[in-house]
Design a protein that fits this description.
It is built from 3 helices and no strands. By secondary structure, the chain is mainly alpha-helical. It is globular and about 35 Å long. The termini are far apart.
Length: 90
Amino acid sequence: MEREWDDKFDNLIRGVLKGVPVDAGIAPHLDLAAQGVDSMAIVELIVRIEETYEVVFPDEAIGPQSFATPAALWKTIGHLTSPGVRGESR
C-alpha cells in the first residue's frame, strides 16, 4: 500500500495507534476513533504535529472532522503548511 504522507506523519500516527505492527500499512481512511484514538491522543498529536511541522493549529482546525482519519489529518496539515497559512506565529 502506497502512503499518501511522509515518514514523519506516519510515525506520529503510529505513536497513537496501539498495536499496529511496524510493517503493517495504515489505511488512509482508517477510523481513528474506532482504533482508540481519544481526546488525550488527539492533544498529543496536536502537540507533536505543531513541533514537527512548525505550525500552530487554529481553533477551527481542531475538530472531529480533522482527526477522523489519517487522510483527513494529513489534509489538514497540508493546509496548515501551505505558504501564507502556517497558523499563528510561534
